[in-house]
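Hello support,

Our group uses your service weekly, and this is the first time we've seen a run hang past the timeout. The protein is DNA polymerase. I'm not sure whether the cause is the sequence or the server load. Input pasted verbatim:
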Amino acid sequence: MENIKGFILSSSYSDTSSGIELNFYLKTDQGPAKVIISNFRPVFFIESKVSGVKIPKLFERKSVGLKSFAKEPLDAIYFSKQVDLFEARDFLADNGIRTYESDVRPNERFLMERFINGDVELQGESHERGKLKVFINPKLKKSSYQVRLNILSLDIETSFGNDLYSIGVHYQFEDHREFKKVFMVANEYKEVNEELTYYPSEKEVLLAFKDNILQKDPDILIGWHVIGFDLDFLQRKFTQYSIPFELGRDGEKVKIHQRKSGTYTCAIGGRVVLDGPPTLRGAFYSFENFKLDTVASELLGAQKDISATGSTKVEEIERRFREDKESLAKYNLLDCTLVSDIFKKTELIELYITRSKISGLQLDRIGISTAAFDHFLLPHIHRKGFVAPNVLDIQRDAHAAGGYVMEPKVGLYENVVVLDFRSLYPSIIKTFGIDPYSRVMSDIDTVTTPTGHKFSKTENILPDFITELFEKRVRAKSVGDEHLSMAIKILMNSFYGVMGSPGCRFYHADLPSAITGTGQWILLESIEFFKSLGYEVLYGDTDSVFVKLKSEDIYKIKERSNELVRRANEFLTKKLETRFGVESHLEMEFEKVFKKLFLPSARGGEGGAKKRYVGLLQGEGEDKLYFSGMEFVRSDWTKLAKNFQYTLFKKIFQGEDYENFIKGYVDRLKNGEFDDLLIYRKRLTKDISEYTKSIPPHVKAAKIYAEKTGQTNLKSIEYIMTSSGPYPSELDFPNVDYEHYIEKQIKPLADSVLYIFDKSFDDIICGDQLSFF
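Update from on-call engineer: The timeout came from a worker crash unrelated to the input. Re-ran successfully.
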């Protein structure tokens, strides 16, 4: 009998002739392990009163003392195979009989019911199968384990057509060793050096790569668009040469799936594939774009060996393949190491491991908030005696209103403090005991929210979990564990969104409505409280208020801000206790102070613009500009516009001459000094051939690019506005239409702030002559 601990890399299920098998791949101190569970029974539930129906493929029907949210008694319906469960579910649906939890994945149910979150302890007998230690039906229980992983960064180089040139690999092993190699197609077999080997054909490159990956046995595969491009291309090549694309640890084939959204997933038995751009987005990184060159430059200060893009890049790759294969190998390997360095710099894998341990999801499902909510809440709901509905059976009512957003008081202000509520929605959930179970049990120890929704003060699940997470996050911050702190924050902040999502099996309109409605009430009460103290509130948004300090406060801003926070917290605590009989878990805190703050008018000219402002943020050292919702932080404006807006506000806030700056900026634009800042970047939401009636500028540019290069499968386009209209920036374009950039990119930004000085862009550029007419 063996006892070992490990971390779950991936899980899946499959039906065999004898029944369902659950498969879990682990990384342990003794290497990779595979757990096979063959004594599990897939299950769903139906109402106990259903009788006289012969359920196909039934293994067992059993009374288990559970009930629906409508408090109807339910029976558990067990099957030998998952396919049998699906058949029975469809049969019952066709006969108008409702099933419960028939959409829960069996491998996920197995883990959640044992409260296993990433780390696990095994007890059982094992046998060796290649590099694997295989356990059949061991005992599994939750545990704590520090995992170390072997990582492979993968990149391929191809022609513009269907030719494979090379495959580059960069391994980083748990013992800190590295291995770099490029497998390249040539007319001969030759070991050029320890990092480059030539092979006489594509087939031999593929076989050498496959042998390498199975021998090195990585836990994680990373890359840049590694699923949708590299692995997808390799899959087609393996098929072309009748080579099984079996890279899994137990001989499993690589399975690539493209979602309707255009994103990809990839399953390789016992290995996890993490694609650079979506993994960074999932960790809330943002860049001007997610090209490898852009991200590497910003994070590492490094660049690709070929910085060109599009057809120019492919032409250079093809030239190197023909004339300078060693140079192509260098480029191939550099792309591998850049991706490795990005993952290392951002500690993405460490963050995802921590998120797995907090949410219970495997690494390749991190970010699926509804699945994380299921993993936590379903087993707790069961232990309270209830069963949840299927996702598709949820009644989709109207969406709840969002947070309260006060109309801003337009203008330029000094000494404005921002006071906000720490984790407002989780705090509301704690204060009023809001969760799906509490709603069902609202007749016990009833508490009513400001919106009139009723919950149970004592019969709830989520509030205690939030308290536990709050405490864990405080401890994580105190010891500098940024990954744990971030993982907890992401999970806590997802609770409201999940309960408000029709894609969640626990959705009920009362849940999001109670949370957002209570949030609105709290913000309005806070605004009125500050007004009662004689303060002017300039703006409020969801969980924060912008308060203009009085003249006597400016020499003690922090002290006065903390005093306002203390008094507001006392006010809300007392009001919640006396009016609703609840203990407040709300905590307003001092967030930041703007020495200068500009609140713009709405684009239509009536009232203030919500969720848009720019301020001079007071820092411990140097003050800095802070933009929210403005063009400077939007991806659909050019660098020309962003640089202009940034410098314009910097000069206005610092009391410098902004008129000569505007004139000079326009002159420099006309002189061609900013030609490298004029590129528009737009995504294409559908194939360019589908645009027929209305063809916007970026689609016109994309059509030109497709016509000139033959590339039609475009996801985005970069273009310049020229005298002939929009034109792809990667191609040689005609004269720039500078007047377009002045009218569409410079003038609107200038006029959005100049009016507060009774000036306009035309006044400054043309003089005041127009005012005479």
